[in-house]
Amino acid sequence: MDGIRRCGADDLDAICEVINDGASAYRGVIPDDCWHEPYMPADELRAQIADGVEFWCYVEDTDLRGVMGIQPKGEVTLIRHAYVRTVRRQTGIGGRLLEHLRARTTTPILIGTWAAAAWAIAFYRKHGFELVPPQQTKKLLRTYWSIPPRQLETSVVLASSEF
What we know:
The chain is 34% helix and 27% strand. By secondary structure, the chain is of the alpha+beta class.
């Protein structure tokens, strides 16, 4: 069936494939010491799921074409790991996934991304999210994410209007 659905255990390989393909856009953009191959190994994906990230996917013609995770964190919800296959970018898949997940929560939404990923920031701003002031960013990243110090230094946070 085409459209958006919650990912299941049978989707793990396809989720990894989409994330690693989509993440290729970051190669040469984010700091070299933050890039690794694969960008998200299967064991890291399983750890994210065990930590409460619920993945949703966009499927077309039985092909998983985009993924996005949602993770409740008390008084906020995080959007995590939003990726679309390279050949399907700019077709509205990311926007549909984001709006679907947005409708699934009543708490303010936070999104972290690489500061150098201008296209990702523009995407989220187009969908009504605003950059959090730099003085709040590090506090939010430390509070709601578990990321290495180098990633903390090179990331931004965007928030929904309810934040």
